[in-house]
Every structure is written in C-alpha cells, then in structure tokens.
Design goal:
mainly alpha, 152 residues
C-alpha cells in the first residue's frame, strides 16, 4: 500500500513537472517585454530563466518516469522544491514583479488570472515540498526499523 502511494506521488510529480516545462517553454516564446528584462536574482533574462527552468523540469520529469531508484527520485524532488522555494522567497524579498502576471500567451490562451496562477504555483511548490520530505522521512524510517534491517 505504501509503495502505491509513493509511486502515485512520483508519477503525479513527473506529470506536473512535464506540464510546467511545456508551459514554461511556451511562455518563453512569447513577445512579452518583461521576458527580456534581466532576472532580479539570476544573471539571465527572464526568458532564459524560463527556458532553463523548463529544461530542468523536463529532465527531472523524464528521470521520474524512467528511473528506478526511489531514494534518488525523492532527493531530486526535494532539491528542486527547496531551490524553487528559495527562488520564490528571493523574488518576494527583492520586491520583484510577479512573473505569473507576465506569462503572455499563457494568460491569453487560458482565462486564468495571474492571482490564480500564482496560487497554483504555490500549491505546486507545496506539493513538491511536503510530498518529497514526507516520502523521504518514510524512507528513512523504513531503513532504520529492525524489520527492514535483519541482523545476520
């Protein structure tokens, strides 16, 4: 039962990362002027940050679909979640404009307000953070219990 929950979490995360990567690539192709501005935290344009983030999400999604080591998958998800949290908090602290409002053609194609899109990204981030750290905790506990480590 636990393994099915773990596999479901990994699969759902892979799907979310894949969809997010496609949306980032699509948005990076837009002509919104804010995409050409220098990112407030990184030495790249916002367009390049979208492309790099999309590539990272696509690569991790592929590994989650094709990889076999649950511990490594969990570690990568937790790493990405912490990086995203630090980035989002850094944008907030720097008073940077909300990039969700500048996704250009994404907002044109789907009638989603930037506020709703921002809430969706925070929910996505929460899913990554809570899920990966909970899964990691369960893996750590299962390796420490006597039943899973029989004595020779």
């Amino acid at each position: 039962m636990i393994r099915r929950i773990q596999d479901g979490y990994i699969y759902s995360t892979a799907v979310i990362l894949f969809v997010t990567a496609i949306l980032l690539f699509s948005s990076a192709l837009d002509a919104a002027p804010i995409l050409d501005w220098l990112n407030p935290l990184l030495p790249f344009s916002n367009r390049h940050v979208f492309v790099l983030s999309g590539m990272l999400g696509l690569g991790l999604s592929a590994y989650l679909f094709l990889g076999s080591e649950l511990g490594t998958k969990t570690m990568f998800i937790a790493w990405l979640a912490v990086i995203c949290l630090i980035y989002r908090l850094g944008l907030w602290w720097a008073g940077a404009p909300d990039l969700c409002s500048s996704l250009g053609n994404l907002n044109d194609r789907f009638p989603i307000s930037p506020e709703i899109l921002n809430r969706i990204t925070w929910a996505w981030l929460g899913w990554l953070l809570v899920g990966s750290h909970t899964l990691g905790l369960f893996q750590w506990i299962s390796h420490r219990t006597p039943e899973s480590n029989p004595t020779p």
